[in-house]
Design goal:
The complex is a heterodimer of chains A (357) and B (429).
Chain A: H1 13-16, H2 23-43, H3 46-72, H4 80-97, H5 103-122, H6 130-150, E1 163-164, E2 169-170, E3 173-174, H7 182-205, H8 207-217, H9 219-224, H10 229-256, E4 258-259, H11 266-279, H12 284-308, H13 313-334, H14 339-352
Helix pairs in contact in A: 2-7, 3-7, 3-8, 3-10, 3-11, 3-12, 4-5, 4-6, 4-10, 5-10, 7-8, 7-10, 8-10, 11-12, 12-13
Chain B: H1 2-17, E1 24-30, H2 37-58, E2 66-72, H3 77-88, H4 100-113, E3 117-118, E4 136-137, H5 143-157, E5 166-172, H6 175-178, H7 181-191, E6 194-200, H8 208-217, E7 221-225, H9 229-240, E8 248-250, H10 257-260, E9 271-274, H11 284-293, H12 308-331, H13 338-346, E10 349-350, H14 352-357, E11 367-368, E12 381-386, E13 391-394, H15 403-421
Parallel strand pairs in B: 1-2, 3-4, 5-6, 5-7, 7-8, 8-9
Antiparallel strand pairs in B: 9-12, 10-11, 12-13
Helix pairs in contact in B: 2-11, 2-12, 3-4, 5-7, 12-13
Classes of the chains: A mainly alpha (357), B alpha/beta (429).
C-alpha cells in the first residue's frame, strides 16, 4: 500500500530517472542516512566501532570495488588482498613522507596509487578471460604481498616489517593513531562509503557502467556495437582498484592502526569475493549486505555461542565455521543470484501486494 | 519451546557472567583453533590450570579471586582486536597477546587505555626499553637475546669462531619471524659469518623450496623461527634431507613435544632455546593434581600436562600473578587496577627462593624487572630432543646474550619509535 509508484507524480525527466523512483524507498534511504550520520555517532562504543561498524564499512568499500570489476564488468579477480596491501602501504608512505598532508587526501591518493597498479595488472585482461584471468590476478595477489615484504623502503626499514599509523586528524579531530574517539573513525569511514557508493551508483547508471555491462554480457557483441573493450576493461580495473585501495588504506590506518604483509593474504581476497557472490554480483546493495554477512556473522555467532551460551571458545569457533559455511551453501542454493536478488524479489512482491497476479 | 530453552540458557549465562564484588580479571587471547592450535592449546591449558590452582588452593591472589576471560583469536590480528575491545571494559588488568602481530596492534593502545601489555618472550623487542615503552613488558627475554644466545651456542660448537661459516635463518614470514634479522645481521658482521634468509609464508605447511635451497647450499647452521604447524613440517623436512639435527636450532617457540614427535626418530638431536626446564618433576604438579586435575577442572583434555608449552603457560601465569601480588603489596589494596598492575610488573622480583616456594625449584632463573629494563633477565639455555626417550633435556647452562650488540640495537630502535610517535622518554629516577 505504501510501496507504490501510484500517486507519486514525476514532473521532470530528472525525477523520472532518479535512483529511487518509489517514494517509500526514497524516505527509507534518507532515514538510513540520518541514522548513520546523526544517531549512531552518539551511541557508538569502542567495541561497536572496532569489531562491528568500521570493519563492515571498510569491507563494504572493498566489496563495491570488486563488484565493479567482477559484478559489472565480468572480470574475475582474486587479487583484492594484494591491492588492499598496495593501498595500505601507499597510505603509510604518504602519511610518514608528508606529515602535513590531510589524511582525507592521503586515503584518496592511496586509492590513486592502487588504481595505477591495478591498471598494470589489468592489461592481461585484454587477452585472457575467465579462469585464466583469475589465475593472472592470483599472481598479482602473491606478487604484491611478496613485494611489500621484499622492499624495505615501503615499511621505512623497520626491524620487523610492521607498519604503524601515526596520529593524523581531520578538522582538528584525530581519526588515526591510538587515541581516536569511536565516532570520529566511524564517521571518517562512513563519509568515504557514502561518497564512493554515490559515485558508483552514478557510474553504473551512465555510459561507462553500460559499457562494462555490455562487456560482461558478451564482449564480442559489445565490441561490434562500438564498445572499446580496452577502455571499458581498463577503466573497470582502475576504478575497482581505486575502491580497493581506499579500503586498504582505511583498513590499515583507521581500523587496525598497524599492519603487516600477512594481513593482506589470499584470505582477504576470498572474503571480499565471497561477500559479493553472496551479496549479489552487479549490485551496490549486494556489496553491503555481502560484506555484512562475511564480516559480521562470525562476530554475531561468537557473541551468541561463546558469550551467551557460554560454550568453550574453541568449540564456538569451530561451530562458527560450520554455521557460516552451511549458511553460504544454503543461500547459494536458495538464491544463486545473491541476497540482493532476494531483496529485489521482495520489493517486486511488495509492489503488487495485496493483489498479486 | 526452543526459544524458551535458548532464553533460559542466555539468562543463565548472563547471571553466571555477572562479576563478583571484587575480582582480578585476566583476559587470555588463546588460540585453540587454526594452524597454530597445536602450540596454542598446551600453553592455554597451562595458563588456565595455574589460575584455577590459585583460586582453588588460596582463593585467588591476596584473597581476591581471579577471573579468566578466555577469547579465541585463532592467531588472527583482526580477531585479536575484537577480543581486546570485547574484554577491556571488564576491568582487564593486563593483556598477554600470545602473538607478535597482535602485540604490535596493542602497543599504541596500551598507553592510551592505560592497560599494560605483557608479551612474554615475543612481540616488539625494543619494548624492553622501559623508558620509551612505559606500558609494554617483554620479560623474560627478547628475540634479539635469543638470536644472540643461539649464535653464542654456535660459536661454542665451532670452537670459538664462526669466520666464513654460513648460517641460514628459516623464519615465519611475519613480524614474528622477521624480528631477529636485525640482530643476526649485526652479529654476522661481528663474527664474520654469512647470513641468508629463507622466509616461509604463513601458515607454513609448504617448505619444499626452502629445504631444497638448504640441501643445495648446505649451511653450517640453520636457525629457525617457526610456530604452529610450520614447526612440525620444518623438522620433518630437515630429517628428510638428513640435515645434522644438532645444527638445526629453533627459537623457544619451536621446541615443544608437538613439534618434534611427528618426525619420530628423525628429530633426534634437534635443539631449541628455552628459558625454563621441561618436564613435570616439580612439587607444583602435586598441588595441581590435588586441586585441579583430581577435582575434574583440567583445562582442555589434559593431554598436554607436563609438556614444554604447558610449562610455559604455567610460567606465564606465575609471572602474571606474582606481579599482581607485588602490586597489592605496593599499593596496599587487594583489588588492584591496571595502572597498579603496571607498577607491580615494573617492580617484580622473583628470586630463586621464591621459585622454590612456588614449587618450581630450579625451574628458571631469578627475575628482576626495573623501570629501564622491561626485558630482563634475557638469559636462556639450549635444550635438546632425545627421540628414543621422547624428552627434552637442557644441554647447556643459562647463557647470557651479547649485551653489547643487543642493548645498543634496542636503544636505537626504541629511540626511532619514540621519534615516530612523538613520545618523550621518561627518566627512570
Amino acid at each position: 500500500m505504501l510501496y507504490r509508484e501510484a500517486g507519486d507524480f514525476k514532473t521532470s525527466y530528472q525525477d523520472d530517472a532518479q535512483t529511487f523512483p518509489i517514494a517509500f524507498d526514497r524516505y527509507r534511504y534518507y532515514f538510513v542516512l540520518f541514522v548513520a550520520f546523526a544517531v549512531i555517532p552518539f551511541m557508538i562504543t569502542e567495541y561497536w566501532e572496532k569489531a562491528v561498524l568500521v570493519p563492515f564499512l571498510v569491507f563494504a568499500i572493498a566489496a563495491m570495488g570488486l563488484n565493479i570489476l567482477t559484478g559489472y564488468c565480468g572480470q574475475v579477480s582474486l587479487g583484492t588482498g594484494g591491492f588492499m596491501a598496495v593501498g595500505a602501504y601507499a597510505a603509510y608512505k604518504l602519511m610518514t613522507g608528508f606529515p602535513d598532508l590531510n589524511i582525507f587526501f592521503v586515503v584518496l591518493l592511496a586509492g590513486g596509487v592502487t588504481a595505477g597498479v591495478g591498471l598494470v595488472f589489468g592489461l592481461p585482461s585484454l587477452r585472457i578471460k575467465g579462469f585464466y584471468l583469475a589465475v593472472a590476478t592470483l599472481a598479482a595477489q602473491f606478487f604484491l604481498v611478496w613485494l611489500v615484504n621484499k622492499w624495505p623502503w615501503l615499511y621505512n626499514y623497520s626491524a620487523s616489517g610492521q607498519i604503524t599509523a601515526p596520529e593524523r586528524s581531520v578538522l582538528g579531530v584525530s581519526v588515526t593513531g591510538p587515541d581516536v574517539a569511536p565516532w570520529a573513525s566511524y564517521l571518517f569511514c562512513l563519509v568515504f562509503v557514502v561518497l564512493l557508493a554515490w559515485l558508483m551508483r552514478n557510474l553504473t547508471r551512465g555510459r561507462i557502467g553500460r559499457q562494462w555491462m555490455a562487456i560482461r554480457d558478451m564482449d564480442i557483441a559489445a565490441e561490434i556495437i562500438g564498445v572499446n573493450p580496452m577502455t571499458a576493461k581498463l577503466t573497470a580495473f582502475a576504478l575497482s582498484s581505486f575502491y580497493i585501495g581506499v579500503a586498504g588504506a582505511l583498513f590499515f590506518a583507521v581500523y587496525l592502526g598497524a599492519g603487516e604483509s600477512e594481513s593482506f593474504g589470499i584470505l582477504q581476497s576470498f572474503i571480499v569475493l565471497f561477500a559479493i557472490i553472496i551479496g549479489g554480483l552487479g549490485s551496490i546493495f549486494g556489496s553491503f549486505i555481502g560484506a555484512a554477512f562475511m564480516i559480521l556473522m562470525p562476530v554475531l555467532l561468537k557473541n551468541v555461542l561463546a558469550g551467551y551460551l557460554g560454550w568453550p571458545t574453541s568449540i564456538a569457533t569451530h561451530m562458527e565455521f560450520v554455521i557460516v559455511g552451511a549458511l553460504i551453501v544454503v543461500f547459494l542454493i536458495l538464491e544463486p543470484h545473491g541476497l540482493a536478488a532476494l531483496w529485489r524479489l521482495a520489493k517486486e512482491k511488495l509492489r503488487l501486494w495485496p493483489f498479486p497476479y | 519451546m526452543k526459544m524458551t530453552k535458548l532464553a533460559l540458557a542466555a539468562a543463565a549465562a548472563m547471571t553466571a557472567a555477572t562479576p563478583a564484588l571484587a575480582d582480578l580479571v585476566i583476559p587470555t587471547l588463546n588460540y585453540r583453533t587454526g594452524p597454530f592450535a597445536p602450540n596454542g592449546i598446551p600453553y592455554a591449558d597451562g595458563f588456565s590450570d595455574y589460575l584455577k590452582l590459585l583460586n582453588a588452593r588460596d582463593g585467588g591472589v591476596g584473597g581476591v579471586e581471579i577471573r579468566e576471560l578466555e577469547c579465541e583469536t585463532a592467531y588472527n590480528t583482526q580477531k585479536g582486536v575484537e577480543c581486546y575491545e570485547a574484554t577491556k571494559g571488564e576491568g582487564a588488568l593486563v593483556y598477554i597477546p600470545q602473538s607478535t602481530g597482535i602485540t604490535y596492534q596493542l602497543i599504541p593502545k596500551a598507553s592510551v587505555d592505560e592497560i599494560p601489555v605483557h608479551s612474554i618472550g615475543y612481540g616488539r623487542t625494543s619494548a624492553a626499553d622501559g623508558k620509551v615503552f612505559e606500558w609494554i613488558f617483554n620479560y623474560p627475554g627478547t628475540y634479539w637475546d635469543a638470536a644472540s644466545i643461539l649464535t653464542k651456542h654456535a660459536l661454542d660448537m665451532e670452537g670459538g669462531s664462526l669466520e666464513g661459516k654460513n648460517i641460514v635463518l628459516l623464519h615465519h614470514n611475519s613480524a614474528y619471524g622477521r624480528e631477529p634479522i636485525r640482530t643476526l645481521e649485526e652479529l654476522a658482521t661481528k663474527h664474520g659469518f654469512t647470513l641468508s634468509l629463507l622466509p616461509v609464508d604463513s601458515p607454513g605447511q609448504v617448505q619444499n623450496s626452502q629445504w631444497l635451497e638448504i640441501r643445495r647450499s648446505r649451511p653450517d647452521f640453520v636457525f629457525f623461527w617457526g610456530w604452529g604447524v610450520m614447526n612440525q613440517v620444518a623438522i620433518q623436512e630437515a630429517a628428510n634431507i638428513r640435515f645434522p639435527m644438532d645444527r638445526f636450532m629453533g627459537v623457544w617457540w619451536s621446541g615443544a613435544e608437538t613439534d618434534v614427535l611427528p618426525a619420530g626418530a628423525g628429530a633426534d638431536g634437534y635443539k631449541a632455546i628455552t628459558w625454563h626446564q621441561p618436564g613435570m618433576d616439580f612439587p607444583i604438579y602435586d598441588d595441581l593434581k590435588a586441586h585441579v586435575y583430581d577435582a575434574g577442572n583440567t583445562s582442555g583434555d589434559g593431554a598436554h600436562i607436563g609438556t614444554v608449552l604447558y610449562n610455559r603457560g604455567l610460567y606465564a601465569a606465575i609471572v602474571t600473578t606474582e606481579a599482581i601480588r607485588k602490586a597489592q603489596e605496593i599499593h596496599g589494596v587487594a583489588d588492584i587496577t591496571p595502572p597498579m598492575m603496571r607498577d607491580g610488573m615494573e617492580a617484580l622480583e622473583i628470586t630463586a627462593d621464591r621459585w622454590a616456594e612456588l614449587g618450581l625449584e630450579d625451574f628458571t632463573g631469578p627475575i628482576s624487572i626495573s623501570c629501564e629494563d622491561h626485558g630482563a633477565p634475557g638469559v636462556a639455555a639450549i635444550q635438546q630432543w632425545d627421540a628414543s626417550a621422547e624428552q627434552w633435556t637442557l644441554v647447556t647452562d643459562f647463557i647470557e646474550p651479547d649485551k653489547d650488540v643487543v642493548d645498543a640495537l634496542i636503544v636505537a630502535d626504541a629511540a626511532a619509535y619514540a621519534q615516530e610517535q612523538g613520545i618523550t622518554p621518561r627518566t627512570c629516577e
